[in-house]
Design a protein that fits this description.
With 313 residues, this protein is mainly alpha-helical. It folds into two domains: 2-198 and 284-308, no CATH class; 202-270. It has nine helices and four strands; from the N terminus they run E-E-H-H-H-H-E-E-H-H-H-H-H. Strands 1-2-3-4 form a four-stranded mixed β-sheet. Strand 1 (2-4) and strand 2 (10-13) form a beta hairpin. The longest helix has 31 residues, at 240-270. The relative contact order is 0.14.
Length: 313
């Protein structure tokens, strides 16, 4: 049933089946993305025990593509500026265009789709909250359409709020997809050096580099301790003894990690570390790199200008 109020608002009372169909349209894309990620991961697993190791950021940095041949400093600066321009978009159509551009960027970067899909699947639980909260909590506007769900008549569903939430989700997905070409097409050291050249403080870069290096070492230490516990007959249960054992486990892991950190720092001092890692090779920014950056910035500016036109949707 449809009502047109004097304030030019349109209220549509939905039936139970219509409510189910509308809810399915929101949940189905998230479920489909999660299923695709799971199936692709299962397909790429080797025979035997699955690989639970932590993936590195630059596994595919040795390939040849538009992004691989781009100077890391120019690439990071240009794509970050492009991401800020994408965040500034307000219309649904321009946000969808930005998402399509990000999909093409992942395709032309010649990187596997699985890491990008996993990133989107990890974000889906947070992003779906926008689709569930904003439509019911947004402020009423003249001329908008309200949907009334059964048993929720006191909380009308604002279509304007839904499209606002959908625009936010699409922009977040567009930026998340673009992180893979930006961070995964150069070695980690080259990418972090690029961040340094655009003004990121050196201590932060060193912390990221050491964290990325030794998170794998600490993970191997944790696996070794878990293997030792299983050899000694440990079985996890839901009792106080298991909680005590896990507390001892994490305490030993913390102490061993701290001891290793001290040894690493002392080894760095013995090798002449004075707060700055030496740089042996710096790739200069060429005119081609600047042209690539200009293309991306121009794309972001064009999208921003298009939606500022009076005829923008």
């Amino acid at each position: 049933m449809t009502e047109i109020l004097p304030e030019s608002r349109i209220i549509i009372h939905l039936s139970v089946m219509a409510s189910i169909w509308l809810t399915s349209l929101v949940v189905l894309p998230v479920a489909l993305l999660t299923a695709i990620t799971f199936l692709r991961k299962k397909k790429t697993q080797q025979k035997g025990q699955p690989d639970w190791s932590i993936p590195t950021l630059d596994n595919h940095a040795d390939r040849n593509s538009f992004f691989h041949n781009w100077n890391p400093a120019a690439k990071v600066a240009s794509l970050l500026l492009y991401c800020f321009l994408i965040v500034s978009l307000k219309t649904f159509a321009c946000s969808v265009t930005a998402l399509v551009i990000s999909l093409f960027a992942v395709y032309f970067s010649k990187l596997p789709w699985l890491p990008s899909l996993q990133r989107l699947a990890a974000m889906s639980g947070f992003l779906i909250m926008f689709l569930l909260v904003i439509p019911f909590s947004s402020r009423e506007q003249p001329g908008e359409t309200l949907l009334i769900f059964p048993l929720l008549s006191r909380f009308p569903f604002h279509l304007n709020g839904f499209f606002l939430a959908l625009t936010i989700v699409i922009k977040a997905c567009a930026i998340a997809l673009l992180m893979e070409p930006m961070l995964g097409t150069s070695s980690l050291s080259a990418t972090l050096q690029g961040f340094t050249r655009i003004g990121v403080p050196v201590p932060i870069i060193q912390m990221i580099l050491l964290t990325h290096r030794y998170i794998f070492v600490f993970h191997q230490e944790m696996v070794r301790m878990q293997r030792s516990m299983k050899v000694r007959g440990y079985t996890a249960r839901t009792d106080v003894l298991t909680m005590k054992t896990m507390g001892n486990f994490f305490g030993m892991l913390f102490i061993s990690s701290y001891d290793r950190t001290q040894k690493v720092y002392e080894a760095m001092l013995c090798r002449g570390y004075k707060g700055i890692f030496p740089t042996f090779h710096t790739r200069e920014i060429s005119g081609k790199d600047l042209a690539k950056g200009g293309i991306w910035i121009m794309i972001g500016l064009v999208l921003l200008l298009i939606e500022r036109l009076p005829s923008a949707p």
